[in-house]
Amino acid sequence: MSNTYKKMRCFVIFLASICFSLAAYSQDTLSVLAWPGYADPDLVNIFEQRHQVKVDVTLVESDDVMWKRLNESNGDKFDVFAVNTAQLQRYIDKGISIPLTLTNIPNSQKQLPRFSDLSSIPGLIRNGKVYAIPYTYSEMGLIYDLNEFSQPPDSFSVMWDKRYQGRVLMYAGSEHNFSFAALSLGLKNPFQIPNSEFGLVTKQVIALRRNILTYYEKPEEATLLFNENHIALMFANYGSQQVKMLKETRANIGYVIPKEGALAWLDCWSVTRDAKNKKLAEDWINFLLEQKVSHVLSERQGLANTLEKPEGLTASDKLIWLERVENMEKRKLLWDRIISGDVPEEF
Fold first, then answer.
1. Distance between CA atoms of residues 331 and 221, nearest Å
2. What is the DSSP string of 97-130?
3. Of 242, 259, 263, the residue nearest 85 (C-alpha)
4. How far is CA 346 from CA 46, 168, 206, 240, 336, in A?
5. Which of 53, 279, 280, 318 is within CB 3.0–4.6 Å of 261 for a Cys-Cys bond?
6. Quick one: pLDDT at residue 3?
């Protein structure tokens, strides 16, 4: 092989490597911050191939971690993130979440009426601008043992019934416990408890504390406790996800949204001010709202999506979307005392 040929061959390889590097460098990258199960690798791959981009997914497991990641001035920059409506407000306040261009998300028009009517969901719209699109949710209904009830319980008040003392399970969360107690008492807004009613609500929390077996944190833990302790009633913080888990263990259960309605979290997708390509971020949201893609979420995670009617939930069931509470610190302080057995004298 002549030196001239060798040089030409090396030069061609060199040019090819430069072209490849430039192509890779010029390829758009979408940075996604999401919860586990919201951006599975096979779905990410479909989006990458369709849009000829790269998607970097970072997973979080708590609201506190999400806030830290998005609020760090010198940290990673994300284009789009999944957040519940109660938490969304502080991202809007801080200017982290920016308004969406709805024409870039046409699949949002295919969502069920309770989700396509964005004005009916507190927190999504501010000053006439939409900041997030609903994606998945979990209502916090009531799971009950079918062997104990000939008819489904029609009210959460049954959890205070002394006949079931020691056979009730509740979620371990300060905010939810006070909101739940306020809901059971018929307060107009369980997330904004007035000072004049806080004593009454706290007494309701304490009364429930005396009636339950224990508090759970994870759905797997709740499933184990339910099956091993002959539980009659359980507040289902994870809703349909818990129902799916229990039925897979062949537990003889029913699930109901009582007449008071059910607290419910609603996770949405929002675009950040750091988005390098806002249209691409909105394409991501639109992709996840395709029927087949949303169905995969429900099939794999046991969570409801916003396009298909969930099993066991009807349009008449009242869902009360979580909102920012009046005083997070006060609730946490009182909750810590109640859970430790130190009953507060003043509220």
1. 24
2. EE---GGG-GGGGGS-HHHH-GGGSTTSEETTEE
3. 263
4. 57, 27, 13, 37, 14
5. 318
6. 54
